[in-house]
Amino acid sequence: GAQLIAEKWGIGRRDMEEFALTSHQRAIRAIDEGRFARETVAYGDVTVDEGPRRDTTLEKMAGLRPVVEGGTITAACSSQVSDGAAALLIASERAVAEHGLTPRARVHHLSVRGEDPIRMLSAPIPATAYALKKTGLTIDAIDLVEINEAFAPVVLAWLKETGADPERV
After folding, report:
1. How confident is the model at residue 111 (pLDDT cuts 50, 70, 90)?
2. Which residues are in the Thiolase N-terminal domain (predicted)?
3. Are the CB atoms for 51 and 28 separated by under 8 Å?
4. Which distant-in-sequence residues (6+ apart) come within 8 Å of 145 by Cβ?
5. Dihedral angle at the C-alpha atoms of 51, 53, 54, 57, nearest 10 degrees?
6. What number does CATH give the domain 2-164?
7. Fewer CB within 10 Å: C terminus or N terminus of the chain?
8. How far apart are CA 125 and CA 9, in angstroms?
9. What's the rounded mean pLDDT across residues 100-128?
């Protein structure tokens, strides 16, 4: 899956590793600045996301062997196996007003999209195109986008196809 995406969109190992390093650095900066402090709850001794690696470097990433012989996908541009949980409260405008809530975001569209099982990791691309078409929005009208970073080429292919600003991802 991830290797196919990297090949189809011409995404090289160095690009994936640079993206992965930036992702780690951004996550660490957000943790250090307390940006998610209001949104996270400790579980035992775990108080913050333990996934971002503070000691990783491009040099360390370059030393990793590909997952598949002759491939470009390594552990550096793949998410680790980890556990977590999330909850999201969605409320109508009426409920927001009745309970004195302050919305953090607005949901403009909900739908379910699929992709060919062989290329399933590229599903965010047609899903985004569909949502933008249904809402009449442009990618530039969206302040922040969260794309599952299971593998770096997933997000990099999405960025190429949508033309989104990488700083908003």
Report:
1. confident
2. 2-93
3. no
4. 139, 164, 168, 169
5. -160
6. 3.40.47.10
7. N
8. 12
9. 89
Map out the domains of the chain as residue ranges. Answer: 2-164
Return the structure tokens found at 117: 């099982």
Query: Helix or strand or coil: residue 48?
Result: coil
Please, are residues 12 and 72 in contact by the beta-carbon 8 Å criterion?
Answer: yes
Residue 44, exposed/middle/buried by CB under 10 A (0-12, 13-18, 19+)?
Answer: exposed
Please tell me the distance from the alpha carbon of residue 96 to that of residue 141, in angstroms, as a whole number: 23
d(C-alpha 154, C-alpha 41), whole Å: 29
Q: CB-hemisphere CA count at 13 Å for 76?
A: 25
Confidence (pTM): 0.88
Tokens of 164: 């989104």
Confidence at 64, pLDDT banded by 50, 70, 90: very high
